[in-house]
Amino acid sequence: MAFTSIIAHHIHRASPESQVTSNLRADGFTTQGTLLECAQELKTHFIRKGGKQYGRFSDDTANFPLSAWLKEYREGRLGFVSLSHKVTSNLALEIEKTTSTLDGYLFFIEEALEAGQYLSIFLAEHQHAVYLDAELDLDNSRYLDTAGFNLAAKVHINDWESGDSATYLTLLKTRGDKDLGDAFAQAVGFSDKYDIKADTSRFLDIVDNYSKNLDEQTARVTRTKVVDYCLEQSKAGKPVVLNELSETLATETKQGAPNDFVRFVETRQAEPPREFIPDSSQIRNYVRISGRNDALSMSFASECLGKDIEYDAEKDVLTINNIPASLKSKLLKHLKRDSE
Q1: Which DSSP category does 305 fall into?
Q2: Best label site of 121, 144, 250, 330, fewest CB within 10 Å?
Q3: Mean pLDDT rounded to a whole number for the chain
Q4: InterPro entries given for it (predicted)?
Q5: Confidence bin at 133 (pLDDT 50/70/90)
């Protein structure tokens, strides 16, 4: 855990007609104890949340000034506290343009890791609860909801500064007040949403073509290891690095050289990315086929299709052979009960 700077400010608007007010903290927190636990919880829940968007800063720094302020900060011309003040005040101005109400806390968390430096912004709120005190009387309490936030952003600073990435800015804007979400995205300066679903689909097509050159057992292991690696990276909030994946496949399958998969990707794409952010749902469904309606739920390994499971598209009929023993037992019991 390497949180280097943390600060938070309060933004409040009681009604659509009232003015947005902000209470700005004068200095950063001391990065220790409970504060570090709070920061870690915000980070962990951010990684786990779905629906994130990936892109970059807008080039229009006049209307989206965060990237310009961040550049000044990195060059030592602006302090961390001043940077957070500017962003908070700018968010307050964007919220003024809406009818949204809010009573939240804007956290700014800077982190230095082996993989690079990051700046994260979270908009969290207090929640109310009741508890029993020592005399077993009910009392009220408030706590910071580090899991239920719907607005956040994360900048991979090294990727942004290098100019080699189109996905260095991650935006979380899920559910809730759309106008408030748009105001947050405006204050962050999010631009050029990246289509990770299309990218993942292209990647899985390449994996399919690569697997066709392998024997059946190696192909099955390869597809499984691709899924395992991608999901592990996604769970950790990291991109899929093709060189790492290529080395992993060579090690796990004991086939070929460490760079075989990367070379194959290069034959299929003119300018293959060094890394990409996978769409977890597509990755999970790559080795499993599933579906459900109100009366039926089914899931099976994709390798079963054409073997134990056959689908007739013209008749829209699915035939299952080698039924699992537990399912067979339940079916027989059900048939016997109905016949009595």
Answers
A1: B
A2: 330
A3: 90
A4: Nucleoid_associated_NdpA (IPR007358)
A5: confident
Cα–Cα distance for residue pair 120/170, rounded to 1 Å: 9
Mean pLDDT in residue range 198-205 = 90
Contact of 104 with 11, CB cutoff 8 Å: yes
pLDDT attached to residue 171: 95
* Beta carbons within 10 angstroms of residue 80's beta carbon: 17
Helical spans, DSSP H, in 191-290: 196-211, 216-235, 242-253, 260-268, 280-286
Q: Are the CB atoms for 172 and 52 separated by under 8 Å? A: yes
Q: What is the distance, to the nearest Å, from the Cα of residue 224 to the centroid of all Cα atoms in its chain? A: 22
- Tokens standing for residue 232: 């592990």
| Angstrom distance (rounded) from CA 340 to CA 336 | 6
Q: Are 170 and 153 in contact (CB under 8 A)?
A: yes
**What does each C-alpha distance from 182 to 96, 97, 187, 191 come to in angstroms?**
12, 11, 9, 12
Please give the C-alpha separations between residue 224 and each of 199, 232, 273, 281, in angstroms, as whole numbers.
19, 12, 22, 15
Calculate the CA 206 to chain-centre distance: 23
What are 38's two structure tokens?
Answer: 């709070």
Rg (the chain; Cα; Å): 25
The token duo for 315 is 């008749």
- Measure the CA–CA gap between 315 and 329, rounded to whole angstroms: 28
Report the distance separating Cα 66 and Cα 104, nearest Å.
Answer: 20
Strand partners, 102: 13
Q: CA-CA distance, 102 to 95, in Å (whole number)?
A: 9
What is the structure's pLDDT at 329? 87
Q: Give me the amino acid identity at 165.
A: S
Cβ 87 vs Cβ 68: under 8 Å: no
Q: Residue 208 belongs to what H/E stretch?
A: helix 196-211
Tokens of 297: 């739920």
* Helix, strand, coil percentages for the chain (3-state, nearest 5): 40, 25, 30
Q: Give the orientation angle of helix 260-268 with respect to helix 196-211, to 10 degrees.
A: 120
